[in-house]
Amino acid sequence: MAPTVRLYNAWVEAHQEWGPGLHEDGFGLLPSDEVNSPAGFAAWVARLTDEADPAKPNDAGHVYRWIVEGDRVLGGIALRYEFNGAVPPMGHLGYGIRPSARRRGLATWALGRMLDEARGFGLEQLLIMCAADNIASAKTIEHHGGVLEGMRDTACGPARGYWVKL
Ligand SMILES: CC(C)(COP(=O)(O)OP(=O)(O)OC[C@H]1O[C@@H](n2cnc3c(N)ncnc32)[C@H](O)[C@@H]1OP(=O)(O)O)[C@@H](O)C(=O)NCCC(=O)NCCS
Fold first, then answer.
1. Whose alpha carbon is nearest atom 18 of ligand 1?
2. Among the four residues 35, 104, 107, 133, which has the most C-beta atoms within 10 Å?
3. What residues make up the domain containing 116?
4. In the structure, which protein residues have their CB atom closer than 6 angstroms to any atom of ligand 1?
5. pLDDT tens digits, one per residue of 35-92
6. DSSP label of 47
7. Hey, is 40 helix, strand or coil?
8. CATH for 147
9. Minimum CA distance residue for ligand 1 atom 41
């Protein structure tokens, strides 16, 4: 589902499971975001919502989705694409599943849903990157037909770059 202030308590509970210092891939969180107060959380959700709004003057489309089951936030996934066709430095997609919900097929499911959304935007192929030693993410991408292009150097170290045709 799209980010919403309605899930403030559930989101903070999930955030606490990740713990400090662990980057939550797929949520579009920046170090400058202050998400532990209702006001800060609302400002962050408003930013994410604006980044996805085609009516707002952005250089890129950012679509954020939260993976929610009942009243629990289980993960997040982000699609990032530049309107000029350039490939974003960390690829077109990022995702993360909270530790207690891993190995249930959620990342594979969420990636499939987001690829469907990307088709709806008329995108033809997406580059997905994962750290060289991230077997779980590599398998997730390969489930959706990702073709390994090779290794790329990123700000976070060497990463596998996979192209997924839509
Ligand atoms: C990578 C990540 C998103 C996978 O989420 P998940 O919901 O556990 O993934 P799935 O359950 O859909 O599993 C996908 C595949 O990876 C395998 N897998 C999952 N965790 C694994 C692990 N720790 N070791 C080996 N294989 C693993 C699964 O068995 C499955 O393969 P299979 O269907 O052939 O059995 C999750 O581990 C995570 O959030 N990691 C931290 C953030 C991250 O690395 N994000 C990706 C950045 S590109």
1. 136
2. 107
3. 5-165
4. 25, 94-97, 102-108, 130, 134-137, 139-140
5. 999 999 999 999 999 998 888 878 888 999 999 999 999 999 999 998 888 999 899 9
6. H
7. helix
8. 3.40.630.30
9. 96
Tokens describing residue 140? 């997730």
From the CA of 131, give the closest atom in ligand 1: 48
Give yes or no for a contact between 128 and 147, defined as CB atoms under 8 angstroms apart: no
How many domains does one find in the chain? 1
Pocket test for ligand 1, best of 106, 139, 141, 160 (most atoms within 8 A of CB): 139
Q: Which residues pair with 159 in a beta bridge?
A: 131, 152
SS (H, E, C) 72-141: EEEEEEEEEEECCCCCCCCECEEEEECHHHCCCCHHHHHHHHHHHHHHHCCCCEEEEEEECCCHHHHHHH
Report how far residue 51's alpha carbon sits from residue 59's, in angstroms, rounded to the nearest whole number: 9
Of the candidates 123, 129, 111, the residue with the CA atom closest to the CA atom of residue 83: 123
Q: Report the predicted TM-score, pTM, of the whole model to 2 decimal places.
A: 0.96
Distance between Cα 100 and ligand 1 center (Å) = 12
Nearest residue (by CA) to ligand 1, atom 21, is 136
